Amino acid sequence: MNNFLSKKFLNLNLFESDNSMTQSEKMFKSIQSVEQALEIIDDRFSLSRSDVIDKPIFILASSWRSGSTLLQRLINSNEQTLIWGEPFANCHLIQNQADSLRSLTETYPQDKWFLSSRKNYEKKLDQQVTDNLYPDVSDLVEGYRNLIRTVYKTPAINNGYKRWGLKEVRLTSKHGIYLQWLFPNAQFLLLHRNPYEAYKSIHHHLGKWNLFSKWPTDQISNVFDFAHHWHLLVQGYLEDAQKLGAMVIPYERLYQDNQVIADISHYLNLELNQNVVKQKIGSSYNKHQVPKSEIKKLQKIVGPLAENLGYYPF
Fold first, then answer.
1. How far apart are CA 188 and CA 58, in angstroms?
2. What single Pfam family name could you report for this chain, choosing any that match (predicted)?
3. Spans of all domains in the chain
4. CA nearest neighbour of 234 among 254, 224, 253, 249
5. What is the pLDDT of residue 120?
6. What are phi and psi of 208, to 5 degrees?
């Protein structure tokens, strides 16, 4: 499946009409969202998260070259905190976990398939129909939660850090809602940057750096890919920030306004070194000019949303 068709199938083409969709695409679109699935799981299985005390920090950024590494370094200036940088990005650990739960509905799995529903059966298991025999959904969810702990928390603790988290440029706000569902005390920093400036910084590298919003099908290889990615993420950040209890941070204020750093420090309850934002490490400013035709293509997709945030073409 090529890049364009994959994005079309996943409904990432924001301006696509239902009339242009195939039957398979319509069926995929009709599947419940991650957020709907989580509500059904809570209603049906009454999962408790009162004993989940983890307080991870998640930085979700609007695209590559949006200042996510700068924000990561700022948080890591607290010596007790480790924010991983896009760890195992192409594995889509978090995304795949969240998407898999979309299969759970009011009727699937059937109640009789759970081992816990058979404890009072007179017949032993070897005398029952066991072609479908499931552990509880609570076991599945705890397994997902422990996988994230094992991959991200345990190595941080083993290396002497007390707090942990990660920064990503591929996660939507819906993935944030999933992470909050797993870890109710999680904290979220939602970072966005002027899309025209971000694109100016990265456009010459597209197609060379092998950037994927979802590996291996959805490569960010041109202005349309970049624009749809930025729009999808930023729109979600603005819609779900309150639900996440998140702090929304414009990149432009991050390095210009010390009060923003103070607000981040207060929000996370961490002492941070504000001098970090003045230090350039690994900077590779792109001096290549962006063709006006590409700016127009970018503006056509991001324009209204970008303007609401005070972002205009240069």
1. 5
2. Sulfotransfer_3
3. 3-13+34-308
4. 249
5. 72
6. -105, -30
